[in-house]
Write a structure and sequence with these properties.
single chain; alpha/beta; Rossmann fold; 2 domains; 6-stranded parallel β-sheet; 40% helix; globular; binds NADPH dihydro-nicotinamide-adenine-dinucleotide phosphate; binds 5,10-Methenyltetrahydrofolate; purine biosynthesis
Length: 303
């Protein structure tokens, strides 16, 4: 008798993201040396949410490492909406700023929708503006939201580009992750199911998935017995939980990793999976936005 000791391949988002950032770095080098253009990314953070501050710090570090300019705006938690809209207007008109990212969610006095609508669609490196989401769903080639783009790149890498005909189940239907990812996987000719909090018998729906993506925001929500043997599992969740020792917090995903890794064919860890890809894709989008604004062809960045 054989016992099943198969464990999933660990999808190394950290390494794949580093490759993307290295290519972006070479593209930036060419833009600077051949055209005198240095891409600039502005990041706006309202309030002092500690998790958001970590992302903003990582983004700043990696933007500078890629040779781009980083402009950071930290606004007080009770900044009125009008003041944020004025800042966005200035960034829209600033020729040194090629990409604008306003960290979401925003405090309650500010409407996310109003802020996203105020960003120049050509500088919308998050791909959240309705002009860009409309273009995405109409088959165009706008900036694509960074986290879904990162997920689709991880899947292409893991499955050798062979996504066509596979059944992808995405748990979560946010504008940031679930909905745009459904579009990208549809483009790859997956059969796509979007599940959410009203889905009936979610474990049974998940068990049909050749590709299972969890973007729920609940620690270890997806269990091992929800997973079809051999499936590719992408864990988007970033949850900070107590790690048992005094006041220490650790990061866990939306998937119960150990259980899932015993059944899946491949799985992303948290941290080190989707998170680093999100930032790499943001830098990629910033290079593309810069080239579009300057009427330049995107350099190949081949090393
Ligand atoms: N790694 C990265 O780069 C990023 C990670 N994240 C992380 O990904 C996770 C999801 O983020 P985001 O999409 O913004 O989250 P949202 O809170 O906007 O959306 C969560 C989705 O999960 C669904 N959901 C909630 N509870 C259940 C349930 N019991 N059963 C089935 N579905 C459920 C909701 O359904 P309904 O619509 O019905 O309410 C909703 O569609 C979070 O952990 C976030 O921190 C987010 C962005 C980037
Ligand atoms: N306008 C906007 N665009 C976003 O793309 C956006 C946003 N708002 N709000 C918040 C979410 C979340 N998000 C992450 C980015 C990187 C990591 C990341 O680098 N994670 C590391 C760990 C970092 C850590 O230790 O916290 C990892 O998973 O390995 C995580 C989460 C982008 N988001």
């Amino acid at each position: 008798m054989t016992t099943n000791t198969t464990t999933a391949t660990r999808i190394d988002g950290k390494a794949i993201a580093a490759d993307i950032r290295a290519r972006v770095g070479r593209q930036v080098h060419t833009l600077v040396s051949d055209h005198g253009v240095t891409p600039g990314l502005a990041v706006v953070l309202v309030g002092e949410d500690s998790a958001s501050q970590v992302y903003v710090r990582n983004k700043r570090k990696q933007t500078l490492e890629a040779g781009m300019q980083s402009f950071e705006h930290n606004l007080d938690i009770d900044t009125p909406q009008a003041e944020l809209l004025e800042l966005i207007d200035r960034l829209n008109r600033d020729p040194a700023v090629n990409g604008i990212l306003v960290q979401l969610p925003l405090p309650e006095q500010i409407s996310d929708a109003a802020v996203i609508a105020a960003i120049d669609p050509d500088k919308d490196v998050d791909g959240f503006h309705e002009v860009n989401t409309g273009r995405l769903w109409s088959g165009g080639n706008p900036p694509v939201p960074c986290t879904p783009l990162g997920c689709s790149l991880l899947l292409k890498h893991t499955l050798d580009g062979d996504l066509a005909g596979r059944h992808a189940v995405i748990v979560g239907r946010s504008n940031i992750v679930g909905k745009p990812l459904a579009n990208l996987l549809l483009r790859e000719n997956c059969t796509v199911t979007i599940a959410h909090s009203k889905t009936r018998d979610l474990p049974a729906v998940c068990r049909q998935a050749d590709i299972l993506v969890a973007a729920v925001g609940r620690p270890k929500f997806v269990r091992g017995d929800w997973i079809k043997p051999g499936a590719a599992v992408i864990d988007v969740g970033i949850n900070r939980v107590d790690d048992g020792s005094e006041g220490k917090r650790k990061l866990v995903g939306d998937v119960a990793f150990d259980e899932a890794a015993a059944v899946a064919g491949a799985i992303t860890p948290v941290p080190g999976g989707v998170g680093p890809m999100t930032i790499a894709c943001l830098l990629h989008n910033t290079v593309h936005a810069t080239c579009a604004q300057k009427g330049l062809t995107v350099p190949s960045g081949e090393g």
